[in-house]
Amino acid sequence: MPSPAADASTTRSVLSLIADDMVEVDRVIARRLDTGVPLVSHVSQYIISAGGKRLRPALLLLMAGALGFRGEQRFNLAAVVEFIHTATLLHDDVVDESTLRRGRPTANESFGNPASVLVGDFLYSRAFEMMLDANNMRVMQILAEATNVIAEGEVLQLMNMHDASLDEAAYLRVIRSKTAKLFEASTRLAAVLAGVDAETEQACASYGQALGTAFQVIDDVLDYEGDASETGKNVGDDLREGKTTLPLILAMQRAEPSQSTLIRTAIETGDTSQLPHIVDIVRTTGALDATRAAAASEAQRAIDALRGFPENSHQAGLLQLAAQLLERRA
């Protein structure tokens, strides 16, 4: 089993393909965060500089490279995608009352909920202002739809809180809206910038959606088998927040009736006093292996979407990212 260090090394190898591009994206981000309101810049920089792989802008850049597009607009739209993602993180942490992200206090924990919400709003509005630079209605359409779907996904998740009857289809609907949609938009934008045909654009979008879905499914696995020092969040956080994720859904299907009742009660009441026992049930029922198998299916769908694409280093990097998700440990 590859170690987290090995996974990180693989990811760095792929991202090295776009290292110079990301420097340009960082320049755009710094310039667009320049504002006369210091708190806006401070909170924005706090969360943007928190680390992470910046997968969404990276996917846009990698897909643009795979399609042979080298125009300057890829830097602007990669920054737009990062701003939208950062805004969702700021709002998510307020809604979820989270205190830890990527191993350090969340922005709402450090600056308070009002500042987090308002700076998130600023990032959304600045992102839409930047979209105009592309002078392309299709770009506007993709990003407006993505932002709308993400908001719908957030509301769906809120409605599903403490609902132990949630099934796999409803779970997937939430993560494809809340998480995978921005992955999909990132890769679709690259296709639009490159001016490819409709079939190729759809293949790019399918890759992004499948990769984003697999990414979130694995993230939900790590909530029960990850190490907080590596994942940046506490084991069992999803259950504490009342989220019925796939590991819990599958554990309830596989466990003894008394064990299923224990999980169901914890989800519905928010009582985490039995968390160690529940984590043990999730692990011993094989629910995590089954969840990883679901992620593997999505990762394979991403790989299949790139069949027929020109073979180059960026296309190979996209394939490698999908394959690596199956071994993700942090």
UniProtKB/TrEMBL annotation:
Q: Which cofactor does it need?
A: Mg(2+)
Which domain of life does this protein belong to?
Bacteria
UniProt feature coiled coil, ranges: none
Name the enzyme group at the top EC level: transferase
Q: What is its EC number?
A: 2.5.1.90
Q: Which SUPFAM superfamilies does this chain map to?
A: Terpenoid synthases
Q: Could you cite one Gene Ontology molecular function of this protein? A: all-trans-octaprenyl-diphosphate synthase activity
Give the UniProt keywords, A-Z. Answer: Magnesium, Metal-binding, Transferase
Q: What does this protein do?
A: Supplies octaprenyl diphosphate, the precursor for the side chain of the isoprenoid quinones ubiquinone and menaquinone.
Task: State the name under which the record lists this protein.
Answer: Octaprenyl diphosphate synthase
